[in-house]
Amino acid sequence: CGPIGLYATLLASRSGAGKIIVIGAPASRLELAKEWGATDTINLDEVTAHNARVEIVKELTGGLGAKFAIEGTGFPAAFDQGFDFLRKDSTYLVLGQTSDASIPFAPGKVMQKQCIVIGNGSADIRHFYKALKFIQAYRNSVDFSKLITTKYTLENVNEALDSMQKGRDIKAAIDFRGR
After folding, report:
1. Cβ atoms 152, 173 nearer than 8 A
2. Which of 43-57, 86-100, 113-127 reaches the highest mean pLDDT?
3. Which residues contact 46 (CB under 8 A, 6 or more apart)?
4. φ, ψ at 129 (rounded to 5°)
5. Strand, helix or coil at 141?
6. Beta-carbon contacts of residue 36 (< 8 Å; ≥ 6 apart)
């Protein structure tokens, strides 16, 4: 439920998705996800077993699983786990996996789910342009400033990085004003 997941939630809700299930933590981020369009949330701090989360998603989708899933965590094991949430003939968008870490993965999951897997590790200028147009279109109905949870001075940049790494901030900003 970081910046990628929250922005994906907002895009999905404004694109007409009927059911948007966000899995993440902490609770404050899940509240923002609800504000931005999540119909359901699963708190990782409360539902700690992966199989239990899979069952909740199946229950919320009438026993089918997700038609579209977005992995934006960057946690290597989340890639493999994401397949378990999918229904057959689904699409899996992988945005968060930038690590070179290896994980056990059964390639048969792709066949079992008959899914399309799309990976995207970077954006080009067209994507930034579309994002800015989206923000411009919704700036009066969405408080985008909620993504920036703390502002730090340049002298406190290491504190900002530490806070981001530990998940305390959604996005930390370095404020140069007044320098």
Report:
1. yes
2. 43-57
3. none
4. -60, -45
5. coil
6. 6, 9, 10, 13, 142
Beta bridge partners, 80, equal none
Amino acid, res. 133: K
In Å, how far from its chain's centre is CA 75?
Answer: 11
Distance, CA of 103 to CA of 1 (rounded, Å): 22
Average pLDDT over residues 104-115: 94
Residues 123-133 have pLDDT tens digits of 789 988 999 99
Residues 6+ apart with CB under 8 A from 8: 70, 72, 95
- 3-class SS at 7? helix
Q: Extract the tokens encoding 32.
A: 């923002």
Q: Which amino acid is at 128?
A: F
pTM of the model: 0.90
Q: Single out the residue of 97, 112, 104 nearest to residue 65, CA to CA.
A: 112
Amino acid at 46: E
Among candidate residues 51, 59, 48, the one with its CA nearest the CA of residue 21? 59
Long-range Cβ contact pairs of 150-155 (< 8 A, separation 24 or more) = 151/175, 154/179
Instruction: Kindly tell me if the per-residue pLDDT of 113 is higher than 80.
Output: yes
Count of CB atoms within 10 A of residue 169's CB?
Answer: 21
Q: Looking up tokens 């699409």, which residue turns up?
A: 91
